[in-house]
Amino acid sequence: MKSKLLIILIVILNVTLLSGCWDRKDIETRGYVLGVAIDVYNQADDSSDTKKELEEMEIHTGEHQYAMTVQIPILKNSGSSSQGSTGGGDGAGKKTMEITQIGNSFMSMQREMQSRTSLSLYYEHLQVIVISEEIAREGIEEILDFFGRDPEMRRRVKILVTKGEAKSALSVEPKIEDYSSIYLASIPINARSNSRIIHKTDLGEVIKSIHAGFDFVLPMTEVADNEIKASGGAAFKYGKMVGWVSELEIEAIKLIRSLYLGGVITVSSPEHGQGIVTMEVTSAKSNITPVITGDEVVFNIDIKIKGNYAENVNMHSHAQLDDSFMQKLEKAYEKEAQRICLNAANKMQVEYGADIFRLNQILQTEEPAYWKRISDQWDIMYPHVEVNINADVTLQQVGLVK
Questions:
Q1: Which residue ranges form the domains of the chain, and what is each CATH number?
Q2: From the centroid of its chain, how far is CA 251?
Q3: Partners of 35 in the beta sheet?
Q4: Strand partners, 39
Q5: pLDDT tens, position by position, 144-184
Q6: What is the pLDDT of residues 70-93, one digit of tens each?
Q7: Residue 139: what pLDDT?
Q8: Which of 110, 146, 244, 402 has the fewest Cβ atoms within 10 Å of its own Cβ atom?
Q9: Burial code of 134-145, b = ≥16 C-beta within 10 A, e = fewer?
């Protein structure tokens, strides 16, 4: 009797353990979504009636609002090296497929897309979400709700804003990359050498900022002639875009918030009229101190910058880089850092009313009693708050040629 029970138990275990992965999906049956673009639905689109019938899904309620486009790699062509086969171009060697669906629910749209492909859409390899300016100005909190809830979405997905149609960014054919989505997601890596590139653009960071009530900046991407450029950013207040931020303003924001990873600053030579001198910044740290007097607050921002004498143009510096000249040069860099930071602070306060510098967060952390007293009035106070900026620059090296 015992032996029979043992045999039955072994059979049951074998059936359980050796039955394989019952829910497995082969790589060939998955559609790995690399990029998503979100645009406002344009009823005046000149697409053919047949194409519109494919893209416009029947909806349960409401009206069509969004056009959602996904980019999927065509794996069988991923190793192709034939001419004209890069990116999303036409031809037998096309490496990506873009599907656009029109609706008012992102979950519904992505499920509807599966009626137009034999692949099961899979988002764990999603690299980037591109949002059009029109969508961004309406607000992105509801847009990101689906991406934040879906367990397949990684929190490290990059979010970008583009002028014009977001879909156009996925259509670019990069010369050095097979897929425009991966190309777009890789650009922030260069923030270590270019201070005008925003690098903290993750889905998780943006959702946290929106829920905490913090204002933030997302990178702006320009598309032209099959080329993509990270060109400044978009300022957001309460999850809605309020305006564009220039490249120099991005540089200033990163200096003020201690987000500066690396870059260069140029100034006119203090002793040579037409000369231009470039400093390679090796480190930049800031300290923001709130000073409270009654109900008023003043922010003193001290920025310490270290860098190297990297280049001079339109001047001869041989045997002229003495202590006196270097001190004058450091003062010139300090004035330039001060100038761009004050200009950026003034624009964010007066023009946009967006607390991009997270001054409210500093008050919450360092002066909780004061913050509790004035928090309801912060939006009114912020545009008029006095901000003082002091920069301290130290030049450490002058390179191999002195």
A1: 27-245 (no CATH), 249-397 (3.30.300.210)
A2: 15
A3: 71, 128
A4: 67
A5: 999 988 888 888 999 999 998 999 999 888 888 889 999 99
A6: 999 988 777 644 443 444 444 456
A7: 95
A8: 402
A9: bbbbbebeebbe
